[in-house]
Amino acid sequence: MRYEGNVFRPPSEADSLLIQATVGCSHNRCSFCAMYRDKRFRVRPVEEVIEDVIAARRYYGPDLRRAFICDGDALVLPMHYLRRLLAALAETFPDLQRVGIYANARDLLKKSGEELAELVRRRLSIFYLGLESGSDRVLEQINKGTTAAEMVAAVGKGMAAGMKSSVIYLLGLGGRQDWREHALESARAVSEMAPNYLSALTVTVVPGTPLAEAQARGEFELPSPEEFALELKLFLENVNVPATVFRSNHASNYVPLAGRLPKDRDRLVGELEAAVRSHRFKPEYLRGL
């Protein structure tokens, strides 16, 4: 296998074969993100990537069940490329059950419903999308390059085609000033999406990013652990979904939580309230990106 630079994947893809079909992120301008700033976006030749797939069989054997296509928004790849790559995966790993991919709203909206349904038939059955915030004001501030309405429509389109959705909400992006709007508008957007999976991560200010520069100028103030917990509490109290698996146990989070919404809402809110009362938060040295 050949990888260029740091390669990232969702926590749930820890046991998946990672296939780097694209290098970097085609947008790569979100103010908080440092994941791909050392890379210039490009698409690797499909023949080269298929060579990597075949080479991976020597390590994984024929029984591989999951694969994940990297880098940042690999669903930007055209259909003819994805068809060849997915066919090679299916031929090389006959027991393959699921292929995952990062996606943004533009990628999902550009492809037709029929094309997305075809990808599902070819086992590309889950996408991960960073909502970050449901507030268009916050999205503009972080230079997300899309609106909340576009992301809601994109998630709906993917799910209508048979894909499972995993959506990320980024705690703290509204700072201390706009935290209520950030929480409430994000709850509204997630309610409209009704994703299969929902993760709440906590923003970390990474040196060298535009967000770090805004913080240095006094234009962004990072919430305290208590304020992060209160923001998540407000968010959970206002999310209205029929059935969503919820996780807030990423390394970045001060209070690890796991449950199902709406079934476990009261328990999750109670755990946040208890953490605030007792000031029981993960220490900084145990947190990470």
From TrEMBL:
Keywords: Iron, Iron-sulfur, Metal-binding, S-adenosyl-L-methionine. SUPFAM superfamilies: Radical SAM enzymes. The keyword Glycosyltransferase does not apply. It comes from candidate division WOR-3 bacterium. Its cofactor is [4Fe-4S] cluster. Pfam families: Radical_SAM. It comes from the Bacteria. InterPro entries: Aldolase_TIM, BchE-like, Elp3/MiaA/NifB-like_rSAM, rSAM, rSAM_sf. One of its GO terms (molecular function) is iron-sulfur cluster binding. The keyword Membrane does not apply. This is B12-binding domain-containing radical SAM protein. Residues 9-242 form the Radical SAM core domain.
